[in-house]
Amino acid sequence: MREALFKKQNLEKWKEIEEDSRTDNPDLLSQRYIELTDDLAYSKTFYPESPTTSYLNGLTSTFFNRIYANKKEKRNRFVLFWKEELPYLFYNSQKELAYSFIIFFVSCVIGIISTLNDDTFVRLILGDDYVDMTMENIAKGNPTGVYNSQSEISMFFAITINNIKVAFTEFVGGVTGSLLTIFALFRNGVMLGTFQTMFFQKNVGLPSVLAIWIHGTLEISAIVIAGCAGLVMGNSLLFPKTFSRLESFKRGARQGLKIAIGLVPVFIAAGFLESFITRKTLPPVMSCLIIGGSAIFMIWYFVLYPIQLHRKYSENEQ
Q: Domain check: are 179 and 272 in the same one?
């Protein structure tokens, strides 16, 4: 993009940002700072010696000094990431999140239909050893006995590390233009549909749901969101818009990485529930409360709150 066009597209926004530099609203300061750093990075890449770059550098420094004026505000940078920056990323990634959910949901349906129509499909997907172990547990009256197979601590670390690995695999898959991300979503979706259908076929569907989804609500939601991170990076590579392909990819990779990192606490919480809570026989009401609470949190933080945050920013800019 030529520098004149870059300035023309952003000049009005920069004037508004310059006016906002005098605000005491920390949320607005943080949001404006994020916008400026993106524009400054682009300007440094393509117009390193330009007055535009000098102007943006000075304006960015102003916001930096306002945000990080003292140690207390500096410590709040961690809080701002979870409170403002990460949710706002999801507002800008709604399309990718919807695509990720659709791919995963359709894959689950494929797993369900395939399992219902082919007796050998469940073993093909889950493996003979796992199916045989599950059948033995069902015969013993403990269909989710697999969650008692090792100590809580070792299970917590193994499951959490594996889930984080799955999430970052989906994110890194975006470098292939989202092909590996889509494959990972498809694979996990088919496995979930197959896994859950196996229990319903053995008439232990409801007990399995009340146990498995104690941790599965957070875990599966996070896997879908990790797919969103990969799609964000993949789309930035395939559809650079007005940026060069490299610059667009850098932006998408940075955004997707923040989303993937933001999922780590969710996987830690899911690992804790799976290792310490799922193995226990809880009253159905308690299971429903945990499952429902987890679902409400995921929908609020990753879907509803970003929309509320965007409206708040829009009102502040008026």
A: yes
Per-residue model confidence as pLDDT tens digits over 43-77: 888 888 888 888 888 888 887 777 765 444 445 67
Measured between alpha carbons, how far is residue 183 from residues 176, 177, 178, 180, 233 in Å?
11, 12, 9, 5, 15
103 and 31: one domain?
Answer: no
Same domain, 296 and 210: yes
- 86 within a domain of the structure (yes/no): no
Supply the pTM of this predicted model: 0.76
Same domain, 188 and 130: yes
Pair 102, 49 in one domain: no
